[in-house]
Amino acid sequence: MTTEPTTTARPIVVHGRWTGYRMLLLARLRELFREPEVIFWIFLFPILLALGLGVAFRNKPPEATRVVIAVQPGSEHIAELLRRGDAKSLKVELQPPAQAAQNFRLGKFDLELLPQGDAVEYVYDPARPESVLARSIADSALQTAAGSRPAVATTSRVNSEPGSRYIDFLIPGLLGMNLMGSGMWGIGFALVEMRQRKLLKRYVATPMRRGDFLLALASSRLILMIVELILVLGFGIFAFHMKVLGSWAAIALVTCLGALTFAALGLLTASRAQKIETASGIMNVVMMPMWIFSGIFFSYERFPAAVIPVIRLLPLTALNDALRAIILEGSSLASQAAPLAVLTVWGALCFFFAVRFFRWT
Amino acid sequence: MAFTMQEQVVVRCRDLRKTYEGKVEAVRGLDLTIYAGQCYGLLGPNGAGKTTTIEILEGLLAATSGTVEILGHTWRDHAPQLRESIGVSLQETRLAEKLTVRETLELFGGFYHHARPVADVIEELSLTEKADAWVGKLSGGQKQRLAIATALVGNPRILFLDEPTTGLDPQSRRQVWDIVRRFQSEGGTVLLTTHYMDEAERLCDYISIVDHGQVIAAGTPPELISGVGGQHCVEFALDPAPPNASDLWRTLPGVGSAQANDGITTLTVEEPHRTIPALLALVEQNHWRLSQLTTRQSSLEDVFVHLTGRHLREE
Ligand SMILES: Nc1ncnc2c1ncn2[C@@H]1O[C@H](COP(=O)(O)OP(=O)(O)OP(=O)(O)O)[C@@H](O)[C@H]1O
Ligand SMILES: [Mg+2]
Question: Engineering a disulfide at B111: which of A208, A281, B205, B234 sits with its beta carbon 3.0 to 4.6 angstroms away?
Answer without folding.
Answer: A208
